[in-house]
Amino acid sequence: MKDEKPFSCRLYPLSFDPGSRRFFYDSECPIMTTYVEQLHDSESEASRHLLSIKSEILKLEKSDPEFLARNHEVDVDYFDLIKLPIKSSLQGNKK
Q: Domain ranges in the chain?
């Protein structure tokens, strides 16, 4: 069995809304201040995380868009989500 975490776990503390193609985050996540600050540095751990997540989402939009919608619905029900306060959408990318 692989040690790789499921996508939903790797996505956290982010949530992706496939309708708006925007990222949100769990307001109760204690690392979010640091995460957001790190996004201004393209070499940071947070930037690498977001880039990796975006890449996976682009693939999932083609292979399993229903999963993305269901995953966001669960996140909306479970977390208090806030829009990620930087330019982080996939709106400029083609599906």
A: 13-83
